[in-house]
Design a protein that fits this description.
The complex is a heterodimer of chains A (162) and B (327).
Chain A lengths: L1 H23 L6 E7 L3 E13 L6 E3 L6 E5 L2 E7 L4 E6 L2 E5 L4 E6 L2 E3 L5 H16 L4 H22 L1
Parallel strand pairs in A: 1-8
Antiparallel strand pairs in A: 1-2, 2-3, 2-5, 4-7, 5-6, 6-9, 7-8
Helix pairs in contact in A: 2-3
Chain B lengths: L13 H67 L9 E2 L2 H6 L12 H5 L3 E6 L9 H15 L8 E5 L1 H7 L7 E5 L9 H13 L6 E11 L2 E9 L2 H5 L12 H75 L1
Parallel strand pairs in B: 2-3, 2-5, 3-4
Antiparallel strand pairs in B: 1-6, 5-6
Helix pairs in contact in B: 1-8, 4-5, 6-8
The chains are: A alpha+beta (162), B alpha/beta (327).
């Protein structure tokens, strides 16, 4: 009896394992997204339908079998359309996008947070602080740094109020 | 009492001899007890360090999981653009190092002379803290070996030292090759800002490298880490990758941004890996030290008790023999 139970258990775990592996491995024509930030991993080689990213050369959407490309993220909202139709909006500060020829996508961001975690009041505060810093910047470098902070703050406010 | 052996005669009188013997034993007793005390203190310290690094280690390991994609992303890109032939990661087995120089960029294969004059960048990822086994010295030794093997390149190669340990080990021999050294690593867990600061410092140094390598300890399990190198490239290299024409046209400044950001991402990843390996190695080292201290304490306690017993016995003998002589 015990033997039978044990074998049953073993079989079921084996089947479970097989199933999970099958779900993980992306098939031909599917897009595996890796989306990570310094603070958190959002997607790890997960198959998704579509990704919209803001890049320096303008926002664009990525569907499976997108032409391989490289791009740099600008502050903004990344929208991920998951396989079950759920959309996930995540704010990113900066980073890179890589679309490889096997149609896998890697989005690496310095900082990223789900939209619902953004606080509008705090964002406004950061914006006004960035503005004053930009105005009082002494040299070119400080000015450029302040400009970046300003851009990020503006985008956060925009994203939080949308 | 007749069976008591008389000590053999010596230069000083009989009494003198006895007192020196006794004094000697007493001195030894004192020394042993002092030693015992200091070893007990050392054991306390190593035990505490072990516990501290254990808690730091769990944190480092957790954060490493989040940082892994930062290594995976660029690696995947290297593969698909064929910037690097074969395996992106090179392990540092002695055999592999002898057989082939680590991951040559593909372009330089045809011209031997060209490959010799390659401007290389060595990035050593270590920290300021020691007492963690061979984690840091492994990195430094490997770089020293690679640099000496490629002596022909001379001063055209540069070394970037992250953490005081690698700097201390490399600066004497490769003083003219030093490009950037970064301090204050390892006190707190590395964050992305640290990596981007280092990447910016490398970019600002104005040194144009053709092939860079990050040397770091890759963490596998709490008892296993391996010295690994991962290549980094600048914009020009990326543009001329063999499979780059499969990629969509990328604007020049965007590619530059991409390349710089990738360096920062890889540095971040390497620092996280190395932090986890360092903490795990320190844990093991401190565990061993604690065990060794325990062993020493055991032996010294035995010695202490024996000496003490000897002193007591000797005193007793003297008292008894003195009393017997008075009879």
């Amino acid at each position: 009896m015990a033997m039978a139970l044990r074998s049953l258990l073993r079989n079921s775990t084996k089947r479970l394992q097989v199933r999970s592996f099958a779900a993980e491995a992306p098939k031909e024509g599917e897009m595996a997204l890796t989306f990570a930030a310094g603070n958190k991993v959002f997607y790890n080689k997960q198959v998704v339908k579509q990704i919209d990213v803001p890049s320096l050369s303008g926002a664009f959407g990525i569907l499976p079998k997108h032409v391989p490309t490289l791009a740099v993220l600008r502050p903004g909202v990344v929208t991920v359309l998951e396989n079950d139709g759920k959309t996930n909006k995540i704010f990113v500060s900066s980073g890179t996008i890589t679309v490889n020829d096997d149609s896998s996508v890697q989005v690496l961001a310095e900082e990223a947070h789900p939209l619902e975690n953004l606080d509008r009041g705090a964002a406004q505060e950061a914006l006004s602080k960035a503005q004053s810093e930009f105005n009082s910047a002494a040299n070119e470098k400080a000015k450029a740094e302040a400009a970046i902070a300003l851009e990020v703050a503006e985008e956060i406010v925009k994203a939080a109020s949308a | 009492m007749a069976s008591l052996k008389k000590p053999s005669p010596c230069r000083w009188g009989d009494l003198d001899y006895k007192t020196t013997q006794l004094n000697f034993k007493m001195v030894q007793l004192k020394q042993v007890s002092l030693r015992l005390k200091s070893i007990k203190n050392i054991q306390k310290i190593t035990k505490t360090m072990k516990m501290v690094s254990a808690s730091k280690f769990t944190r480092a390991e957790r954060e490493l999981q989040a940082a892994r994609p930062f290594g995976y992303g660029p690696r995947k890109f290297y593969e698909s653009s064929q910037l690097v032939k074969g395996d992106v990661d090179k392990k540092s087995g002695d055999k592999a190092a002898k057989d082939s120089p680590p991951s040559e960029p593909v372009k330089d294969k045809p011209d031997e002379k060209d490959a010799k004059a390659l401007k290389r960048l060595y990035i050593a990822v270590t920290s300021d803290r020691g007492l963690c086994g061979g984690v840091h010295s492994g990195v430094a030794r490997r770089i020293r070996r690679d640099l000496t093997a490629r002596k022909a390149e001379g001063p055209s190669s540069k070394v970037v030292c992250i953490g005081d340990k690698s700097r201390a080990m490399l600066r004497r021999i490769f003083a003219p090759n030093m490009l950037v050294s970064v301090k204050d690593i390892g006190r707190i867990a590395p964050v992305f800002a640290d990596a981007s600061m280092i990447a910016a410092a490398i970019a600002e140094s104005g040194y144009i490298y053709e092939f860079g390598e990050i040397y770091y300890n890759k963490y596998f399990t709490p008892v296993k880490y391996e010295l690994t190198t991962i290549p980094v490239f600048d914009k020009v290299r990326m543009e001329s990758a063999p499979n780059m024409n499969a990629f969509d046209d990328v604007e020049d400044d965007q590619l530059e941004c991409y390349a710089e950001w990738t360096v920062a991402a890889l540095l971040y990843y390497a620092m996280k890996e190395s932090a986890a390996s360092e903490q795990s190695a320190r844990m093991a080292a401190m565990d061993n030290a604690t065990k060794n201290a325990a062993e020493m304490i055991r032996k010294l306690t035995l010695l202490f008790n024996r000496t003490r017993q000897a002193v007591i016995t000797r005193e007793l003998i003297e008292i008894i023999s003195g009393a017997a002589a008075l009879k």
